# Entry
Amino acid sequence: MKWAIFTVLAFLFFEILGGAIVLSYFYKGTLTPSLVTAYLVDHPVHTVFMWFCGLGGYLLMRYRIDKLPTPGQDGDSQ
# Structure
């Protein structure tokens, strides 16, 4: 259960990180919630970039979970 929470948090963190990248490189206006929302609605490619950053966070967490040893197995099975 805790890995599900970590996975959701990784998705949200990387999506926010993608949003920060988009806003720092492409947005040149005043940082108010209504103007930023209007900017993202007018530029859907930036929103999709943020989603892909979130997907990258999910995939990173999934990779990390797959690399963890399974309880009860010592890794010497043939």
Q: What stands out?
A: Residues 2-67 form one domain. Residues 40 and 47 are 6 Å apart (CA to CA). The mean pLDDT is 90. The helical segments are 2-26, 33-42, 44-67.
